[in-house]
Amino acid sequence: MRPFPVAEFKTFPKELAVLRKLRTPAAIQDFLNRMPFNFEEGGETYRSPVAMLKAKKAHCMEGAMLAAAALWLHGQPPLLLDLKTVDPDVDHVVTLFKEGGRWGAISKTNHAVLRYRDPVYRDPRELAMSYFNEYFLDSGVKTMRSYSAPFDLSKYGGAWITAPVDLADIAADLDSSKHFRILKKGAERTLRRAEPIEIEAGKIVEWGRKK
Question: pTM surpassing 0.85?
């Protein structure tokens, strides 16, 4: 694993200090939970961790990249996991981590589901599948169809952590990276819809839009 690029933070000491405090996956998750949700009112964004800290809001991809940077600083590889859906639903991105030989995930979401996962899963597939039954539309239709191989951000070097421009290229690379299908052909026809109580619980949000 490449060393964390501390040199990139010469002009960002405050942001580096924030990452230094986020020593554990649980601490990172708590920090992201306190961060207001980025509803992208001004258009789509893929802010770097430093830009996200300055903006003081994040969506799932931005939160995942910040979590990956913090894990990297503290000795773990910066790995993302993409959960891909069918239209009209949207993909979700989490950050993978490993403790005691088991996998867990850090997740920035505005909903009551698709959240943090404790490190109890044997491999990334088992972890990804833990999200399957939570991933549905308001109609109850389950939408998750594939998950990515662990996506290592260290291959981009360190500039992505402090970049002043959007990281749409990294988001596109993740989207087109190797993914594993979950369902066999035609299996979606036999999926049971989420129940009304699940749908109602799924409407709970952590952050409301500003009026």
Answer: yes
